TrEMBL record:
Residues 5-126 form the Response regulatory domain. Residues 140-393 form the EAL domain. Keywords: Phosphoprotein. This is EAL domain, c-di-GMP-specific phosphodiesterase class I (Or its enzymatically inactive variant). It holds the Pfam family EAL. GO terms for biological process: phosphorelay signal transduction system. The modification 4-aspartylphosphate is found at D56. Gene3D superfamilies: 3.40.50.2300, EAL domain (3.20.20.450). GO terms for molecular function: cyclic-guanylate-specific phosphodiesterase activity. CDD domains: EAL (cd01948). It comes from Pseudomonas mucidolens.
Length: 398
């Protein structure tokens, strides 16, 4: 496996020496060091890239905050680990800043430096790098004609990410996600094609392809006695289409799939300024018997207002709260309150982004019952999902 390059930004000489010495004993790659932000900027300019920065925050001259801002624009930083004595509340705010800068945050070690904790973060970083989709160069990025051709040829394929019970990991449904099986570049994630589709109003074509593939799968599973709930993502622009509920109703009836086994996920940010037609369509989808899930709950600014106004049957808690749970006690409190809110409203709560058994155990303590995340299963093609269903459900159950 490729050696990692690590930069230690620490203004206290003895602490910096201890940290660098400890890292040199366990990591074969180069361990760089800097006493302040200016030195760290100079180090960055002299190297191709740094995988992980261990960053102190409060120091004379250019501090860690200013350095991180500079590092984000340089494009040379893979991930950040905080090592600071700054007040925990201020460190939490810094973590939010790191995410806003587009940098990968691995964790907060505090002080003094803890090698064991850092080793776990290195492991997470390697897993993150291996799981990340292959980045296409700007010269390789799909053009509008590429995307249109892919849609015409049926190259876009529905992948399924299971939703499971937190205890026992029993299948309760799945989210339908789009992947592009490209003849040259292989399987491409949405980040490679959604921007083009949004710009040129092709989201609708993609949705109907995913919807029909999902319904066809539900038909096949129903023939085996398995009723599986599938959730489809609706783009805000689609909600304003007056023909949306009628076409959905027609396709559901034609496939003979129970409407109750079909759910639509809508991000709360997409509902902030939704027109009356969009809100009407949400009501009509519920009148058909379909489910509605508020996706990325807590990531926007009008969650509670929209939740009280609209007929949602499920909340999907944004993955950011799980990611921050270990270092931010407030996140755990928000998760616990979300569990209680869902129970009080009589709707289900799916917690997104569960990636470790430690997170799973803590979420169970907080009252969580349903989850989605890499710990349980990654998005998978239809054949793999059918096999997953066989081993995780009993006939007739979703």
């Amino acid at each position: 496996m490729q050696d990692l390059t690590v930069l230690v930004l620490e203004d206290e000489p003895f602490q910096r020496l201890v940290t660098v010495t400890a890292l040199e004993k366990v990591l074969p790659g180069p361990i760089l060091q800097a006493a302040d932000g200016h030195e760290a900027v100079a180090v960055l300019s002299d190297c191709d890239a740094v995988d992980i920065v261990l960053c102190d925050l409060k120091m004379a001259g250019m501090d860690g905050l200013a350095f991180l801002r500079h590092a984000s624009s340089s494009g040379k930083i893979g991930a950040v680990v905080l090592c600071s004595e700054l007040d925990p509340v201020l460190r939490q705010a810094t973590v939010a800043m790191i995410h806003c800068l587009g940098l990968t945050f691995l964790g907060d070690l505090g002080k003094p430096f803890k090698l064991e904790g850092f080793s776990q973060m290195v492991k997470l970083y390697r897993e993150h790098c291996s799981a990340a989709p292959r980045q296409l160069s700007s010269a390789e990025l799909p053009t509008l004609s590429d995307v249109q051709e892919g849609l015409d040829k049926g190259e876009f394929e529905a992948y399924y990410q299971p939703k499971v019970t937190m205890k026992g990991q029993l299948l309760v449904g799945a989210e339908v996600l789009a992947r592009w099986t490209h003849p040259q570049w292989g399987v491409l994630a949405p980040m490679h094609f959604l921007p083009v589709m949004e710009k040129h109003n092709l989201i609708n074509r993609l949705f109907w392809q995913m919807f029909e593939q999902g319904l066809a799968l539900q038909q096949r599973l129903a023939a085996q006695g398995r009723i599986i709930n599938l959730a489809f993502n609706l783009h805000p622009a689609q909600l304003a289409c007056s023909a949306l509920p009628e076409r959905i109703s027609m396709l559901i009836k034609r496939s003979q799939v129970p409407a109750a086994s079909v759910m639509f996920e809508i991000t709360e940010s997409g509902l902030i300024s939704a027109p009356a037609r969009s809100l009407e369509n949400l009501v009509r989808l519920r009148m058909l018997g379909c489910g509605l899930a508020m996706d990325d709950f807590g990531a926007g600014y009008s969650s509670l207002d929209r939740l009280s106004e609209l007929p949602f049957s499920q909340i999907k808690l944004d993955r950011a709260f799980v990611r921050k749970m270990q270092n931010q006690p407030k996140s755990a409190a928000i998760i616990s309150c979300s569990v209680a809110l869902a129970q009080a409203l009589g709707i289900s709560l799916v917690i997104e982004g569960v990636e470790t058994v430690e997170q799973q155990a803590r979420l169970i303590e907080l009252g969580g019952t349903l989850a989605q995340g890499f710990l349980f299963a990654r998005p998978m093609p239809e054949s793999h999902f059918i096999n997953f269903c066989t081993h995780r459900t009993s006939p007739g159950k979703s």
